[in-house]
Amino acid sequence: MLDRNRGDVYNYLYNAILTQELKPGQPISEIGISKALGISRSPLREALRILQAEGLVNHYPGRGMFVAAFTEKDLMEVYALRELFEVYSLENMIRYVSDEQLDKLEENFRNAKQDSGFDREKMFQADLALHSAIIKGSGNYRLQEFMNTLDIQSNVIKNISRGIPELFQISCEKHIAIIQAIRERNLELAQERLRNHIQEAKHRTIEAIRTSEITGIKPD
């Protein structure tokens, strides 16, 4: 068997959950994954314990491990915390972020747009870069550590809604508008746009998932 460490196995499982190769509610076969990766059960179980602590897998005694299926309540809580901490973080971020950094963040969104539509992966990464920059700009180390854990769940939720093409154009415009307000050093406007964006993203995602075949959110 290959001597893969816990980090390698964790990354494999996290990406499988993120891309829905392992779907919400799906049982996790330790034997199957061990054979597929050519690894022992020890690093797999360690990685699963981390994912369980992060809320991405659930353990049911007598049944085993399952990929977490987020409820609408889970989604509402994640978005509420994002709004609270990101809006707070803007106050420091707006003071110290450089125009060059903002140029790069805006360029990420413009590069995601193509003649045929949007590059989903580039859009996902552009979104991640902006929201991460806002939290990092807070200068609050404990907040950054907390948000790192929350982002693990948030990214899975965001990735679920990446299959909704009509959201890309709206999302791109909203993010660029936030960056422009930050560039103008207009804290009140930036906070208002960020708050509205997070609220709208929450409602659009819930509504789109309710009315489509996209899986990943279940009733409470």
Kindly describe this structure.
Helix 8 runs antiparallel to helix 9. With 220 residues, the chain is mainly α. The chain contains nine helices and six strands, in the order H-H-H-E-E-E-H-H-E-E-H-H-H-H-E. The chain has helices at residues 6-18, 30-37, 41-53, 72-96, 99-112, 120-136, 141-160, 166-183, 187-210; strands spanning 57-60, 64-67, 70-71, 113-114, 117-118, 217-218. The strands form three sheets. It has a two-stranded antiparallel ribbon. A two-stranded parallel ribbon has the order 3-6. The protein has a two-stranded antiparallel ribbon with strand order 4-5. 26% of the residues are buried. The model has no long low-confidence stretch (mean pLDDT 86). The longest helix is centred in the middle third of the chain and has 25 residues, at 72-96.
Q: How would you state the average pLDDT, rounded?
A: 86
Q: Which percent bin holds the helix content?
A: 55-70%
Query: What does the largest sheet look like?
Result: 2 strands, antiparallel
Number of helices: 9
Strand order of the largest sheet: 1-2
| Terminus-to-terminus distance | 41 Å
C-alpha Rg (nearest Å): 19 Å
Alpha-beta classification: mainly alpha
Low-confidence stretches: none
How would you describe the shape?
A: globular
Count of beta strands: 6
Per DSSP, what share of the residues sits in E-state strands of 2 or more residues? 5-15%
Q: Which series of helices and strands comes N to C?
A: HHHEEEHHEEHHHHE
